[in-house]
Amino acid sequence: xxxxxxxxxxxxxxxxxxxxxxxxxxxxxxxxxxxxxxxxxxxxxxxxxxxxxxxxxxxxxxxxxxxxxxxxxxxxxxxxxxxxxxxxxxxxxxxxxxxxxxxxxxxxxxxxxxxxxxxxxxxxxxxxxxxxxxxxxxxxxxxxxxxxxxxxxxxxxxxxxxxxxxxxxxxxxxxxxxxxxxxxxxxxxxxxxxxxxxxxxxxxxxxxxxxxxxxxxxxxxxxxxxxxxxxxxxxxxxxxxxxxxxxxxxxxxxxxxxxxxxxxxxxxxxxxxxxxxx
Length: 278
Known about the structure:
The protein is about 80% helix and about 0% strand. By secondary structure, the chain is mostly helical. It has three domains: about 1-105, no CATH class; about 105-165, no CATH class; about 170-275.
């Protein structure tokens, strides 16, 4: 099989690999074929064979490449595919590898996070796209949340990916808990689970503009304002300014209003410092 790959004969390599799978049990396949094909040499040979095959039969290469990659041992093959993908220049080969990596995105989150936080803008965008392919659960979702809450260049892209994965129904459910939920712990959990997107920012406005936030304790108020900043960015400046300048009533909610004004002012100062540092 490896010889066929080195000769650029992807169809023959695929036939031989599939014959081996039919003739051997899974343990035998892993031992006899997996180590040989899933290492660096095997993946480099595959990349070259894919590039050659793309010139001969461009309509077949994606399907053949996907079938071949399915024969690899993911534990051995993923590191080699990641390494080759990072260096590969062929658009066709990158496309085949990207599909494979997307299917296994949950297993390569540390590598994807490193690329997403790197200096190369193209690599960072592709890393977010691959994390998105990992679906709406598990490590990939947590990685997207981490990127969306951070200061990386792909912050907004990660937030958009979260927005699409979490869905409007889930966001509405969480916002309803934040606005009207009777249990404090449920409200705090909902605040922590909301994606920091433009739609979340808009959904928080009734809480910020009315008196509801005055009725929450300091920890919950701080969590809401933190989410407001992460979801709205510089847009949150106006909302924080209004809160910090809010008129203090004579009687009802006097102490609560003063406390919220101070918290909003501190949050606004932190936002301005962060903006100036960027």
